[in-house]
Amino acid sequence: MSAEHLDVLIIGAGLSGIGAAHHLQSAFPYRRYAILEARDALGGTWDLFRYPGIRSDSDLHTFGYEFKPWRDEQSIASADKILAYLRDTAAEHGIDRRIRYRSKVVAASWSSPDARWTVEVERTDTGTRQTLTSTWLFCAGGYYRYDEGYTPHFAGRERFHGPIVHPQHWQTGLDYSGKSVLVIGSGATAVTLVPAMAATAGHVTLLQRTPTYVVPVPARDAVANAMRRLLGAERAHPLIRRKNIAQQQAIWRLCQRYPRAARRIIRWINRTKLPVGYPVDEHFNPPYDPWEQRLCVAPDGDLFRAIRDGTASVVTDHIAAFTERGVLLRSGREIEADIVVTATGLNVQAIGGMALTVDGRPVNLANTVAYKGVMLSGVPNLAYAVGYTNSSWTLKIGLLCEYFCRLLAHLDAHGYRTAVPLPSDPHMPTRPFLDFGAGYVRRVIDELPRQGSRPPWLTSMNYHDDVKLLRHLPVADDELHCSASPAAAPTGAEMNR
């Protein structure tokens, strides 16, 4: 019995996968596609994480889809509202009927003679496997492992008498009311957890090795809400998006061009939100410039309010070891706690961790170069979705999906079956694909694809540049090789050795 064949196989039913499905079926109503989701629900990150206070750190007018207005009064929204938005989007467009749950892609093998992928899929509930074939793969599974968060080694961890919880694996029913909670970490998750838990805990301590930039932002966008009331959600939506995109880009450019001024502005804002005499430079003055790592947001200044109220505090130090009662710091101080939360980050994982082969040769991702931020050198008929790290993730995902559909239309118009990008200069200088200082990226930077030194091999983090590249410039160029004859299509397999 032959394997089921699809035109496009989308991997992942989260924010990116649902968006990709909408773009695909809108442009090509009769193309056969399916979404494979390893978990048993759609929503990706927003269904996986269950820790207190989980929310977006970008406004939903840009973090949401361009084709579906965000209608809630809160623009910095909680996970339950985001998940409801995703479920509604999938149901409204019939995308939910295309999702195959508990289906994990283990491996994918490209055959040039057949011009198709053979995909091995494991049922996560039974352990059985099946084989599908597809003309295209669209990898929309995000960039981190869903089954495992990152926790560094802590000496003496086994000595601690209380529960130690990672936010990615939050314990249902964990009771922290009236208790002392220690949150280890300094990123967006820690900044979210501390004020949320401080509302009912006895006290919450944020322990960080290095400060991060934290900026208070309104949870409600007053201008956007007024525009929606005046014009209606549909007409106001594109105007609100333009306004918020302009704001994001202006802040990014300010931080890039004038990092010292940006640092002074953020410090001044922090100082106005914290108690008089608070050691701002000790706890909120990072050693790096703004946007070398992602800025953390505090909706309505909730973290600063918790510190002012005395329900939360910040300690900047290194852990020497766990003790029975908490953690011992290098300074000699011991922080006692009933519960420890290790908000220590993610495990980055490219293309869902699946094994790729092209004509029998394993693909080494570290030897590939990203083409327009959507394909990989030497790998035919494969697209992937990684959004912005310096603004709303979905802004770039939408553009990547548009380009993907433009590429399919280009292939159809010329009778092509395959598309594979190859640098004209095999010795082109490269640098990391994610030019980003976060620890979770630095840990695996040598395992990820690279980016080149010139277009179309540069991975842009500028929305307006990407609008030009992905929406307006011609689909094809001299470094994208399209072919009607599968056997004639170059794959550059030597790059993947």
From TrEMBL:
<keyword id="KW-0285">Flavoprotein</keyword>
<protein>
    <submittedName>
        <fullName>FAD-containing monooxygenase EthA</fullName>
    </submittedName>
</protein>
<dbReference type="InterPro" id="IPR036188">
    <property type="entry name" value="FAD/NAD-bd_sf"/>
</dbReference>
<dbReference type="GO" id="GO:0050661">
    <property type="term" value="F:NADP binding"/>
</dbReference>
<dbReference type="InterPro" id="IPR020946">
    <property type="entry name" value="Flavin_mOase-like"/>
</dbReference>
<comment type="similarity">
    <text>Belongs to the FAD-binding monooxygenase family.</text>
</comment>
<dbReference type="Pfam" id="PF13450">
    <property type="entry name" value="NAD_binding_8"/>
</dbReference>
<dbReference type="GO" id="GO:0004499">
    <property type="term" value="F:N,N-dimethylaniline monooxygenase activity"/>
</dbReference>
<dbReference type="GO" id="GO:0050660">
    <property type="term" value="F:flavin adenine dinucleotide binding"/>
</dbReference>
<dbReference type="InterPro" id="IPR051820">
    <property type="entry name" value="FAD-binding_MO"/>
</dbReference>
<keyword id="KW-0521">NADP</keyword>
<keyword id="KW-0503">Monooxygenase</keyword>
<dbReference type="Pfam" id="PF00743">
    <property type="entry name" value="FMO-like"/>
</dbReference>
<keyword id="KW-0560">Oxidoreductase</keyword>
<keyword id="KW-0274">FAD</keyword>
